[in-house]
Design a protein that fits this description.
This protein has about 325 residues and is α/β, with parallel strands linked by helices. It has 15 helices and nine strands.
Length: about 325
């Protein structure tokens, strides 16, 4: 009789869990509680509705309590369940990698739209391997051996032809190796780190987040170094933090000016000021998707000739795409 009185109904257990997660500050307490309870019961979230008036089995109750403790401690839900969906594909994730974000799908969308003919593709800083698997025809790299271990399992499942390379940004790769470089590099400023949500600040790998005082440490290097590894006409497509697009664009424009000025300065009698001014004018004309490709290809090699800013559904600039001058993609 006492044992029967102690039984808890599935619906009551869910209601109590929602209240607990809400009190802990979890952003989506109902959705997370439903996912965890469904996992403990071996059912779906829809199955919870059907079984709301049924008793919660003792074993499932124990499993649910353990899962709930972790989420109330603000451990990310994808780490608890061991999986996160990206590009309609399931990816194994844990504390060694960032859980893929919906906004990163914009990198994939932009890459496919701007460079559909690209064949030699690099997913730089691959983490879980999400971008690599979505684009499929790629090489993927990361500085972290732990991250590559996670990526290896995911690409074996979704894109077994992807090659994995360990290295710091673009250092391992030869000149003109790629038609497209796609990246979600670290871009969180030192000042922002402490204010991140506990799920990110306390659980996700700091190496995949922190990017120095201005958040541009990795982005600046990437913009500067990508022209070396991109084939003529190749694209660099990268995610940036909210509010960073203008600063990264300025880095790209400044690099174009320096390269143009250096090219002009190698000829006797060329006015470097006029060369820089011409570069600025050309970059301004190439900022939108409708801008012309610019001067003859042979004059553009080694500098960005088109800059496109891509905004998310909230109107925030989250992706920058930079096209290198000098021709079209190779199709090897």
């Amino acid at each position: 009789m006492g044992a029967a009185a102690a039984l808890v109904m599935v619906g009551d257990a869910l209601a109590a869990a929602i209240a607990r997660l809400a009190a802990a500050g979890v952003p989506e307490p109902r959705a997370d509680a439903e996912v965890l309870l469904a996992r403990a019961l071996g059912t779906t979230r829809a199955g919870l509705v059907v079984g709301a008036r049924r008793p919660l089995p003792e074993g499932a109750a124990r499993d649910f309590a353990a899962l709930l403790d972790r989420r109330a401690g603000r451990e990310p839900l994808p780490y608890i369940v061991g999986e996160r969906e990206f590009w309609s594909l399931p990816f194994a994730v844990d504390r060694r990698v960032l859980a893929p974000r919906p906004e990163t799908e914009l990198v994939v969308e932009t890459a496919l739209r701007l460079a559909p003919a690209a064949r030699r593709i690099l997913d730089l800083g691959t983490g879980s391997g999400a971008i690599a698997a979505a684009l499929a025809r790629v090489c993927a790299s990361d500085v972290s051996a732990d991250a590559l271990a996670v990526a290896r399992a995911n690409v074996a499942r979704h894109a077994p032809g992807v090659a994995l390379v360990r290295g710091d940004l673009l250092a391992p790769f030869r000149a003109a190796a790629f038609d497209l470089v796609a990246a979600n590099p670290p871009y969180v400023t030192d000042a922002e780190l402490g204010g991140l949500a506990p799920e990110v600040r306390d659980h996700e790998p700091r190496v995949a987040l922190a990017a120095g005082p201005d958040g541009l440490a990795a982005l600046g290097r990437l913009v500067a170094e990508a022209p070396r590894v991109l084939a003529p006409g190749g694209w660099l497509v990268m995610e940036v933090g909210a509010g960073q697009a203008a600063a990264v664009r300025r880095l790209a424009e400044a690099g174009a000016e320096r390269r143009q000025a250096a090219r002009g300065g190698s000829r006797a009698g060329v006015d470097l000021g006029r060369a820089a001014g011409a570069a600025r004018a050309f970059v301004r004309s190439a900022r939108s998707a409708r801008a012309p490709d610019g001067p003859p290809a042979e004059l553009d090699t080694g500098r960005y000739v088109r800059i496109e800013v891509v905004r998310d559904h909230a109107g925030i600039a989250r992706v920058l795409a930079l096209r290198l001058g000098g021709g079209r993609w190779t199709r090897s």
